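Teaching note: in complex prediction, the entire set of molecules is handled at once rather than each chain in isolation. The prompt given to students was simply: 'Predict the structure of this complex.' The entities are:
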Amino acid sequence: MAGHVDGNALAGPLSELFAFDPTTASARCASCGDTAVLARAMVYEKPHSFIVRCSACDAVLMVVLQKGDATEIDLGGLAWLRTLG
Amino acid sequence: MTATVASVHPETASARSLTIDVPGWRGNIAGQHVDVRLTAEDGYQAVRSYSLASSGPGATLQLAVDRLPDGEVSPYLVDDVLPGDQLEIRGPLGGWFVWEPSLAGSVQLIAGGSGIVPLMAMIRSRAASASTSPFRLLYSVRNPDDVFFRAELETPTPGLEVTWAYTRATPTGWPRPTGRVTGDDLSAHCFPASENPAVFVCGPTGFVEAVANALVLLGHDPARVKTERFGGA
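The expected output is the structure of the full assembly:
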């Protein structure tokens, strides 16, 4: 698929790991400190992964890897994730 | 979850809507999507997200799908799938790009091409409810033959204003020349920033980013502008 989409597209893959919908949660970028709802992040879809980048500085926030029926998330670029409420 | 295709309906030369029955579906909010998973005979799987044009408590859903030339899933859904066929779906998904009738205030919808689908769910949700929120839709399409949900949008329910913006060809005598949506279009046809509308922009990535940036330049609060990108051109 050409170009990128956004964090809305993560709702399905992340439902394998989280009991809540993390696309509505606030995420803080560990690189630049920008805080935004995860749905606003830029998402680059690869064959078995989603590369999630900060919409402010383009740093990688997280990588969602699909390994067969398993889902793994590298959260190294996130300072924190917080539910709205 | 397993969905059974109940009916198919052509929307344009390259798109159609699918009505599917999903036993056990717990209802969905307008703007949500499903992931559709196809499995080939050799076990290869492809998953794609499709917005729902329907909302509410029922277990009958409507998708509308545009065929991508090199797509792995959309050509099957647009050209091949038949009533009675089964699809594997996951959903409802996404709690951010949504509108509920309990929300008060003006709503500005801006669609590029098949980005109309989740916005149609919002329009239908409003029409089916007691909501009196004023809605406006700015719908950018290549030409008059590329319009989804034509009958419903040409006779909008009271409280909904629809503006059409054609990028390649217009109906005969159309006042606006062809072209992409500009800041002038947004100023002329959308709720002004001073009214603080909730804004939903959906379409191809380039369209969404251009429109969202133009809205912010016009003074809209970025936090009130929600976006959903389909990828592609």
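Point out the following to students. The first strand of chain A starts at residue 5 and ends at 6. Strands of chain A lie at 5-6, 26-29, 35-37, 42-46, 49-53, 60-67, 70-74, 78-82.
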